[in-house]
Amino acid sequence: xxxxxxxxxxxxAPILVFYLFSxxxxxxxxxxxxxxxxxxFLLLGVIALxxxxxxxxxxxxxxxxxxxxxxxxxxxxxKKTGFLLGLASFALAHLFFAAGFFTAVLTxxxxxxxxxxxxxxxxxxxxxMILLFPLLKLRPPKELRFPVAVYLVLLSxxxxxxxxxxxxxxxxxPLIGTALFAFSDAALAAGLFGKPSxxxxxxxxxxxxxxxLLLAAAIALF
Length: 222
Fold this sequence. Notes:
This protein is mainly α. Helices cover 82% and strands 0% of the residues.
């Protein structure tokens, strides 16, 4: 998968630069360009599937990529509605990613016993997500606090399960991909609920797409 991963990264980077910095990317063009960029990690997932096992894990991870793709396009629609629908789509993506990781963990657990550190990992990841907003001095609007909190719980679950899943396949790729995803979300939250800046947008997208590309390539490892 390494040549495909490098090729996907080289294709993604110039589209991202065009999306972020071109004055021509406005209005309806934004979700189209974003969708084109996200289509690359979806195609990488399609390429990775034939090399995966016949277990549910790779197909669940691919489901996570599909909902991520939908979330990317939706987020660029009307501001409030687009954000809530996009958040819902990404929440479903994390449910699929978490389920895929959990399936991989169960496969390993069948021979070695369940992971006793699972609850501790989830607690640590959840605490990290809970502290994120106070540390960054971010205050989402009241009507968004509950859906954002639910999303953070699901992101914490994915982050926690990515560690034992990485152990199960003997590579840190899922953990690195999920950690980059979490960092990207932090940059996105800082831009949405704090002071927007081009730097935050760059940090968000240039960590998000490597995250998705790594998760897509990881499908072949499960």
